[in-house]
Design goal:
Order of helices and strands: HHHHHHHHHEEHEEEHEHHEEHHHHH
Mean pLDDT: 84
Radius of gyration: 29 Å
Low-confidence stretches: 449-461
Largest sheet: 5 strands, mixed
Length: 461
């Protein structure tokens, strides 16, 4: 773990789980960075105006080309022009962002909208634009003519900085236009979704740990932890659960993985005491570290990463969109993720605390991720010959790159895809081509040959 990783880990242990979740939600919103930029620019305006009123600015400042050199009317004109133009451009940028969100929701899937609201380019450009407008308005109110109360005052440094900020806004606008043109392209969206899922895979499927995977929950009587609200499990704060287990002498079983939907009153977990009895405070302490929310997120829910990528493929092969090429690109990304997962050990299901099995978890399995990746694409893309051939061949490529223990589930999905496709209204030559592509899954129990299987030329994968 890097130094920054250790610092972040230490900070997470100090912050409650629900606060961490709200913080992650804030970082992915469109208001957080713009609000921060507005506050920073407001503070900057107040400080620079104070500096202007303190310093004695003579000819050596006003005569320099680096500083604003006009009078009261010039300062008011410049600040008014910058503020008026920036607020107009900001409205246009907001409109573009909203259109991008609508297109992403209708063209791809609503699950990728967080990628747009959490996009740092969008957030930074909006922060710069709104912050510059706020800065200009605060500086403009301090410009005074000779007959105004307090006498003439032109904040030379402040106006100069306003001009510099306007140039930054122009650069940000150019950057935003370029970025907006790219962020609605299929490869960009898939890369964003896949990249976030890969980072989550590194956390969910780490290197082997010393946890005792063979241990089972105690057989004695337990106390159930019931959900006080409905929602998706967004976070299981393992660090704090370890502390609760150690301090209160508890053994804890979490009955559901991240991403599961829980109804109010349904059991979230079970608790066994090592000493004494389980109190209401113990139950609350455990429940507080199981965070529920109204939507699934990519903070800890690795299966949701697969779900949103698979949804893009399902949307692409729908009658309304009819874009099988996007579906094949999506299958490629899913296969890349499956190879990464398949070559890592399963996440630990038992965590030891002070040498005793204390926390029992429901782990996300490779089979579950394969189901999430392939099932709906197979169902909705059954009538598309190219998509089905690409799905079957992709599963063969994954099976050739993962350990033997994972190949059975891949072969099973390939056989189901082959059987589903063969039931469609296809030509005999097309069916023969599909059988050739899926031959690896129907022969020798799904054993993958080292060389590529020859395919019929009629199927362009």
């Amino acid at each position: 773990m890097t130094t920054w990783g250790r610092i972040e880990h230490a900070l997470n242990r100090l912050v409650p789980a629900h606060v961490q979740t709200r913080w992650e939600d804030a970082k992915e919103s469109l208001w957080f960075l713009p609000a921060g930029g507005t506050i920073l620019c407001a503070v900057l305006a107040l400080l620079l105006v104070k500096l202007d009123s303190t310093l004695t600015l003579g000819d050596r400042f006003t005569s320099s080309s680096l500083f604003f050199g006009a009078g009261v009317e010039g300062a008011r004109g410049v600040l008014s022009a910058i503020a008026a133009s920036i607020v107009t451009v900001t409205g246009t940028i907001f409109s573009i962002v909203i259109v991008a969100l609508q297109l992403a929701s209708s063209q791809f899937t609503p699950r990728v909208m967080r990628h747009f609201t959490g996009d740092r380019v969008n957030q930074v450009v909006l922060a710069v634009m709104i912050g510059t407008f706020t800065y200009c308005m605060l500086v403009l109110r301090t410009v005074r003519a000779q007959d105004d109360v307090g006498g003439a005052f032109v904040p030379v440094i402040s106006v100069t900085v306003a001009i510099a900020l306007s140039l930054v806004c122009i650069g940000g606008l150019i950057w935003f236009i370029h970025h907006s043109a790219r962020q609605l392209q299929v490869p960009f969206i898939l890369e964003r979704a896949s990249g976030d899922t890969k980072r989550l895979l590194d956390q969910t499927f780490p290197m082997p740990s010393a946890a005792s995977a063979a241990a089972r929950p105690p057989a004695g009587p337990f106390v159930e932890i019931l959900a006080t609200r409905s929602g998706y499990i967004q976070d299981i704060d393992l660090d704090h659960l370890i502390d609760v287990s150690r301090e209160r002498g508890l053994r804890i079983q979490v009955l559901h993985p991240c991403g599961a939907w829980i109804l109010v009153g349904a059991p979230l977990g079970r608790v066994w005491p090592d000493r004494g009895e389980v109190t209401d405070a113990d139950v609350c302490a455990v429940r507080d570290n199981l965070v529920l929310g109204i939507e699934r997120t990519l903070q800890h829910d690795v299966a949701f990463g697969f779900r949103q990528i698979a949804d893009i493929a399902v949307k692409a092969i729908s009658a309304a969109i009819n874009d099988p090429t996007t579906a094949t690109q999506t299958i490629d990304q899913l296969n890349d993720l499956l190879v990464r997962v398949g070559n890592r050990p399963a996440p630990p299901t038992v965590v030891e605390v002070d040498g005793r099995p204390a926390i029992f978890l429901e782990a996300v399995t490779f089979a579950l991720l394969v189901d999430t990746a392939y099932t709906q694409i197979r169902h909705y893309g059954a009538a598309d010959l190219v998509v089905m051939a690409h799905l079957i061949e992709g599963s063969r490529q994954v099976a050739a790159l993962v350990p033997e223990r994972h190949r059975a589930v891949l072969a099973s999905h390939a056989r189901m895809a082959l059987e589903t496709a063969l039931k469609q209204n296809l030509l005999d030559e097309e069916k023969d081509g599909l059988r050739a592509v899926g031959a690896w899954a129907t022969q020798d129990g799904g054993r993958v040959a080292s060389d590529a299987i020859e395919r019929d030329a009629l199927i362009v994968i």
